[in-house]
Each structure stands twice: as C-alpha cells, then as structure tokens.
Amino acid sequence: MAKAKDVDIKANDVQEGRDTDATETASQSDASILQAAGIGIAENDPTEPTLTLRMWVIAIVFCIIVSGLNTLYTLRKPSLTITAPVVLLLAYPLGKLWEKIVPSWNIPLRCWSFNLNPGPFNTKEHTLIYIMSNLSVYVRLGADVLTEQQMFYGFKAGWGFQVLITLATFLIGFCLAGMFRSIVVVPKELIWPGVLGVTALTTTLHNVGQGNVQASYDTWKISRYAFFTIVCVISFCWYWFPDFIFPALSYFSFPCWINPTSPVVNQIFGMSSGMGLIPITFDWSQISYVGSPLLTPSWAIVNVFASLVFWIWIVAVGCYYTNVWKTGYLPFQSSSVFDNTGSTYKVSKVVSAATNYRLDLKRYLAYSPVYMPITYALNMFGLSFATLSALIVWVTLEHRHVMTNAARRVPTLLMQSLLDAATNPIRKMRLELPMFLCGACAIALVFYPPLALVFATSNLKINIDVFCRIVAGFVFEGNVLANIWFFDIGYITTIKGLWFAQDMKLAYYANIPQRELFLVQVVGMVIGTLSSLGVLNWALNHISGVCTKNAVNGFSCPFSSTHFNTSLIWGAIGPRRYLRNEIGYSALLYFFLIGAILPIPVYYLSRRYPNSLWKRVHVPLFLGGLNFLPPATGMNYASWAIVGLTFGLVIRKRLHAWWSKYNFVLSSALDSSVGIAGVLIFLTVFFTGASKHFNWWGTEVYKVRSSPSSRHHNMFICEFRGGPSAVCGHIDAFPSPARRSALGPDSSTDLSVATRWISPGRECVIVLRLFSSSPPRTETPRTGFMRLLGWLAITLVTQHAWGSDLPQEERCVTAVYSTFNYISFAGSPAKGMWDTRCHNPLEVASIYAASDIYCRDSERAAGFVQLAALCEEFGNRELLPREAVAENLTEDAVRNMRTVDYLELSRAEPVDAPVLISASYFNLMFNTIDSWQYETWSHHAFGYAGYAYWCGILLFGIASRLSSLALSSRKFRAERELESNAYAYPPTETAYHNSLWTGKLIHWAQTHLIVPAPLPMQGRNFVGCTYSTRVEALVVVGFWLLSIILSVVGYRTFAGNIYWPNTTDQILRYSADRTGIMSFANFPLLWLFGGRNNILIWATGWSFATFNIYHRHVARIATLQGIAHTILYIVIWIRGKKGTVLTAELLC
C-alpha cells in the first residue's frame, strides 16, 4: 500500500489541476462530450492506490508484448496498430484475476513496504497500464527510421546506437510536452478527443458511475458493458472475413472486378493506386487507417474531406490528365518514385556504401532524374509546404495571446542534457550531424505548439517532416543518413511530444498525479525501447523478402518506403538540384505563399461573421489533413469521413441519447476486437503459412493481372500504372547502348541496334518521346504551376476539357515533315514547298522512315491522312505512296541512312539521298509545334472565358428575376385565397419572409451590395469612374481582374524554340496574339450591352444604366487590349531584322 505522503502529493496535484481549470468554463457541448466519455460522472477517490505491484507487473508485460507487435506490424501493409482499447480490454481480466487469486500479503522492506494485492483493481491502475503500453507507438516511429537506414541504405547500426538515439528522441519529446503543458494540456477547452475512447472504456469496465449513465440517457436499456461485449464479439468474428476468408471485402471496388483490364476504370475506381471514387469497404482496419472516425469531431472530418475532394479528386485529377510534371505516365497514386523508364527508382545506382552514402553525381546524370506520382508530389510536398506556412500564420492570428505563457516554463538545464543525449550517439556513428542538431531542436520547438493545438482539438496530426528534409537537404546536400537523422530529431521528437501531452491529458482526466505519471512513462520508455528494437532486428533478419514487393504477408515496409523516397529526394539528390531540374517541381514552392495567405481571409471572415460556417473552416487541416496519403488512399479517407459524419452529424443529431451512451464504447469495441483478431489471424494463419493453401475467387478477384497481350504487365490491387514500362514491357531488358543511341542527341552510328529494339510492335518508341532526357512536351516551371492554378478555376477546367479534343495523334507526323523544311533535297525543280514535300522521292522516303521510328501506328495513320489532304489542297498533287519509295525503306536502307541534327545541313546544299533526323531535332520540332498549337488554342479559350464570366453574372440576374416573379405570383395567389376563404394559407408577410431572396438574405444584399456606394465614402466615384452601386463595381472589377490575369498567364515557352529561339520573342509573340484575340472577343459583348432594346434588360430586370456601365468598361478593356496588341507587334517588328535596319537608318 502506498504511504500517506504519496497520497497527499497526489491529492494536492489533482487539486492544483482543478483549481487551474476552474478559471475557464467549457461550453455545454464540450461538457456533454466529456460526460459521454465517462469523465466527471463519479467523484475522485484520492486514497486509491496507483503504483502497485499489480500495475507494474501487468504494465511491463504488456509494454514488452505490445511494443514488439506494434513494431512488427509497422512493417506490414495494411498496418495494424494494437491501440489503447486492446490494452485496456486485455488488462482488465488480468487485473481482476490478480484481485481474486493473489493473496493480500504485505511485504515489508527496510524503508517502505508494498502489498501483493492492495484491493480492487481500479481505473487509475488500469490507465497507467495503458499509458506504459501505449509507449509502443512512440518506439515505432523511431523503428521506421532505423528500418529505412538498414534495409534501403544498407547501413546497419549496432545496438548501442539504436538504443541511445531512440531514448534521446523520447527525452526531447518529454521536454516539449512539459514546456508547453500550460497551453496544450491545462486548458479545459482542449479536449484531446483521442483519449475519450480510453476513458469511456475504463469507466465502462469498472462500472464507474454507470448508474448515472443509465438514468441520464433515454435510449436502449442495454448497459454499456453489455453493448461493448456484444459488439466486440461480433466484430472479432467478422474481421476474419475481410482479412483472411474474403479479402475482396476489404477492397470492394466492384467496377474493377467487372472490367479489370480497363485503364480508365482502374484509374477512377482503383483503391490501391487509383482515385477510389467508390469508397466501399467492409474492413474496419481500412476505415480507421487514419484513426477512429468515431472519436474525431465532425468539423475536422468535414475539413479533411473537403481537402480530399478538392486537392485529390479535382486538382490532382486535373494535373494527372493534363500531364503536369509528366505524372500522366505514372500511377495516379503510389508511395514509390520512378525513373525515366517508368520503373521504381533504384537508389543503389546513385548512392551506395562505396560513395559513403553520398550522391554519385556522374552516375546520377547517367541514370535519371526522379519522377513522382501526382498525389505524392501534390500532397507530400506541395500541401506540406503550404501547411508549414499556414501553421505559423494561423497560430499567430488565433493563439498569439497564449503563446507567451509557455516561455516561462523552459527548463534550460534539462534541455541541455537532452541535446547532449541526442548528439553523442550520432557523433559516435559518424553521421556528420554537427551542432546543426540545435537547428533540428529549434524546428521542433517552433512547430510543436501549433501542431499540439490542432491535435488537441481535432485528433488529427499534421506532419512537418518535409520541412525538416528540406533544411537538412540544403545543409547536408548529398548525405542521406544525415538527412534522415535530422528528420528524426526535428520531426519524430515533435510527434512523440504530442503523444506525451495526450497521456498527460488522460492522466488529468483520471486524476493521476504528474509525478507518478512521469515515473511510469520513464520505465515504459526504457522497456519499450528494448523490446521494440529486439523485434525489429529479428524481423529484418528473418522475414523473407522483408521491405520488398515480394515480401511474405505484405511486410513491404510501407511507412519506411515512403520515408525512404522522401530522403532520397531531399537527402541524396538535394532540394537545390531537385527543384531546378527540367520537370518543373520548383513550382511546388509557390505553395508556401498559398499557405501563408489563405489563413488571413479565413480569420477575418470568421471574426466578421462569428456565427457563420467560417468559424468551422480550419486552414491547417484543409491543407495538411491528408498527411497519411500515401500510403493511405482516397478510399481510406473517404470511408473514414463517411462513417465519421454519419455518427458525428446524423446519429448525434437525431439520436443524441444513443450517441452519448454508446458512441465512444462502440469505437473502443471495434478497435480492440479488430486488433485482437488481427494478431490472432497473423499468428495462426499467415505466420504459419496456412494462407498459401487457401485460394478462391474472393481471395483473388481484387488482384488484377493483365493478359500477356495487354499493354500493362504488372499486377496490382485493381490499379493502372501506365508509363513506359507498361507500354513497352520490361525496358531494362533492352541493351543500354541502344537506349543511349536512340535517346541521345548524337545518334548517328548505332541506329541498327535501336531499330531492332523498337521493331516489335513499333510501340516502344513512345518512350523516346515521353521519357527521354529532353522530353518533347516540355513544361517550364512557370507553365506547370499555371496549369495547376488553372485547374482551380472553372474556366480553366472547361479549357482543359476542350483541349482534350485537339488532334493529338496528327502532331507526330506533322513534327516529322516540318523538320525537313530546313533541309534541301536533290531532284527535279519544285514549284513550291508542298510540291517537294509531297512528290520528291527523297524527302517523302525520309518522312516515311522518320515516322516509322518516332510515331506509333495510330499516329502514322492519322498523320499521313492529314498530310495527303494537305498535299491535295495546297500542292494540287497526291502524296507519293509508300510503295513508290519502298527501296529506300528496307531495313538495310534505313540502317545506312545519315542522321542529321537541326541546322546541320544548309539549304543551299541539297542532299542526294534520304536522311533521318536525330531524336533531339525531332523533340525540338515537336515541342515547337505543340507549343504553338497550345498557344493558339489557349488564346481562343481565354477569349471565351469572358463569355463564361458574363454568362454567370447574367444567369444570377435571371435567377433573381425569376425568383421575384415567383414571389409576386405567390403573393397574388395568397391574397386571392384569403379573400375567397378557400383554405387556410399563411399570411403573405410570412411567405415573403421565408422566400429565397427575402428576409435576412435580401436585407443583407440591400445593405451590403445593392444600395451602398462602391466604397464607404460620399459620392459614387471609384477609381476615376462612376458607378451606381457596389455590386456593379464588384462585377466590373472582377472582369478587369479576369482580363488582366488571362492576358499574362499560361504561356508555354522553352529555350530553343525553332520559330522563336529567344524566350523573350516567344512571350512577345504569344502576348501580342492573345491580347488581339481577347480584344476582338469583347466586341460581341459591346454590341450586346450597348443597345437600349437589349433583351437582357427584360431577362434580368436590370436597368439600361447598369448595362451601359458594363458596356463602357468592356469597351475600355477591349481598347487597352487592342493597344497592347499593336504595341507588342511594333516591338516584335523592331526586334526583327527589318526593324533593326530601319531603326539604324532613322538614327543616321
């Protein structure tokens, strides 16, 4: 039994916490949630024993077992964590058994004594057992980094390093939680929803205050304990089906089962690497992959689900199908990164032990840059950047008044000792992390408060790992091991600090003194570290194929794989080299600006309209809520959101008593039963190998394997990878000299091998165009970013949809014959360019030969049909058929053809034999034509964007007009019905008040938009122009902004353009064309808005004065665009050769 002194300390500590929180009152909603979770339903007994022998024995046993199993499961996908309800459920019968069978003997020692059985097994002992066992989650985070170091980089560290570095990160996490306890633990409004399931289950099992619960809620009479037992048993039995008997229930993408070989179906409905637009799953481990949806507040789920819809299902889809950053040739979603052949990036080719785990620049340049799938690039990098800046701005705006309180609690001496503990093992292992460790700790210190505030209110964690990678990438460029351990000190310590703070809140709810909590956590930290590292080293040395795609039972190390890909990008290659490559990933840095700006208008709108939905908009969650994606998928987040909103909104609103009584118990029952069943299934079925002998339709249908004749040869879980490896088979099997010959700029000697390589099916040539070192469809960083922004607007969505109808397949042959415009061929004198192109045997043979190399069958068919039509239209001659030049197209003839590059031959010296063009020449011409056609199309699309804008404005006016007419008709009918007393009808005032455009809405519109002047000032002048109302000013300003933005964005330029080699000349020409086309497009609007008999006046009910204002401003915009068009063409003319000569003459 504990001594009286310990009891007094405990009582004082608890009372101190209560007095602190007494100054703050929680909202009624928060109080009801806490009561539903079993908090405050019974009085605290300060004499209850806590640090008993029973608690220590059970806690240590569970800490060893659970930390080991959690570490083992972190190597598997789908991962399964033994969570708090599992520990609580299994610890309860053991504690009660100890209570019943162990004798109550008092064991005396010199200074103190303890009792083998101090009495009934209580909630405080139970909670401390959970807290110690829950440390396995913390150890698992460090295990990911150790796995990455050993399995992916081949650097095996000894036990000393592993133990010391893991303990060091624990201690720094302790420090962070203690420093900021006053702002993240003590405030009563910070509920920490993640612990509510623990408190609910604890009070349910120990029957604490259950009589009050039964009397408080008028719903089912079944007790919480009975409900928990029934659900737990049913869920335990059911989990055998999706995990072992019928795994297709876990990946229930039935459209993929119906048509497994369709790329579109797999991309849209695939759950592994697709979008997962039908998020149906019957597997609780899939639904709760990112956390239990029953414990997450509804407002947080809405923010995360909105992020999924907007960023993944709209923006990412738009970028994917417009091939931003070459992502169209890769899987839509994957945790892997790829090389220029579409294969998984082989880090061993650029980093190895021979180079001391640094980047080998020569081998990197000879191998490939890194290509990322769109969801990986957008979420892991773009949104992570935005989240970092958004967190700083958000916490400054929302919590700036409480941040200063934490500064008073900084324990300087403890912090210094923790830094020493973290530094020593890293220095011993020569990971080359000098005193920059202070920088890693500073990152943790800065970002811990906002991360803790988000976690304490939403039960969702936001990652800052990418920021740590970037900083380490610049400081330790090329050193991957230094990068991952900088990440460990800067990020993982922050996450561990969050979990420690959560345990502090749980201990506060359970009335456990802080000193006893600290002692339990220290012991659990040490024991959990040793157990976890022992299991980790066993697994990495004994599981067959661990951390590879061929691993047994899914032990592919998904979390470590994701960390490895990130460390590869930021550590080996480095952010400087990575963000400056030709792919255009530097555009991702703009997300820093997006994240910094977005919280500001949301903050002021929430303050301006405190009762509106703006109060529920949480910018950090909207930007960073998808932090588990990848390896999580859209299916995981969508199913999680559907279940969470069903319980958090629908059931809580309509069946509030049922929700309050059973919601948190239901979450605990599902988590605990699935955890226990998962462990049992693994140990009895998968680990023993029995699963290999159980195969039927339900275990195989979700695994899609294309037929040998299919373009896609790899097997996935209902997914479509695409990319060159799918088009050409195993490209690595082809000889590398052939690849270099075909892709390199100097491909004049070894075309025979290249011809043999691409001859089967003639399809592998697509790799030459799509993944060569100088890709044909070049996108500058600015162009890629503008495309991304374009998908954020409805106008540009329409633009891209329209652009998909352009004749893509005709461009290849067009690029081929256009290259021969700069080469002269011997032969009979031609009457013109088209006569030579269509009837000169040498040039026609050259066109046929080059098209066979660089174009697919479908592209050749479409391109030559177009070329034949052009020959008849412009050359008045038929195109020579292939048979007419067959002697020049044999395999020997093509092998002996001369390969020429751009401007290698002079037009004054005709060639007397067919020639081939080099790959670089073809790519350059293809880029030039593709850029020109894109610009021509986008000029017209942007011109039509003005029509889309005005259509939206006019449709709003027409809807308002129709609403007014309907209101008038309704009012008239109401008066007639009241006069005739036909039947009771609500008064016209009520009908008017409840109408769409009346009541509060019409009052707000009149006082804020319709009546007032453009600015809060006397007069109607705004920017030198006269307006009637504010709404007219807003409409006109919007059109001005649209016209300006569309005049300057979306230009696709690249160095070396054949038409305009200089980038400045390209911008001048494209700007001149666009301003002219947009100016001309405004003329119909001028005529439409300028007439007094305008039909739109009747349709909208607006006055002629309103349309006259619009007419004048459209005219001004069209005039300025016309002037800009003229000036730009004058500049182009002056920059040209004739302009230069004329200017010289004028100056003389």
UniProtKB/TrEMBL annotation:
It comes from the Eukaryota. The keyword Membrane applies. One of its GO terms (cellular component) is membrane. InterPro entries: Fe3_Rdtase_TM_dom, Oligpept_transpt, OPT. GO terms for molecular function: oligopeptide transmembrane transporter activity; oxidoreductase activity. It is a multi-pass membrane protein. It holds the Pfam family OPT. It is found in: Membrane. Keywords: Ion transport, Membrane, Peptide transport, Protein transport, Transmembrane, Transmembrane helix, Transport. The chain crosses the membrane at residues 53-73, 159-184, 190-210, 222-241, 299-321, 370-395, 433-454, 466-487, 518-540, 583-605, 634-652, 664-687, 947-967, 1033-1054, 1085-1105, 1117-1136. Residues 1075-1137 form the Ferric oxidoreductase domain. One of its GO terms (biological process) is monoatomic ion transport. Its main location: membrane. Belongs to the oligopeptide OPT transporter family. NCBIfam families: ISP4_OPT (TIGR00727), OPT_sfam (TIGR00728). This is Ferric oxidoreductase domain-containing protein. It comes from Penicillium argentinense.
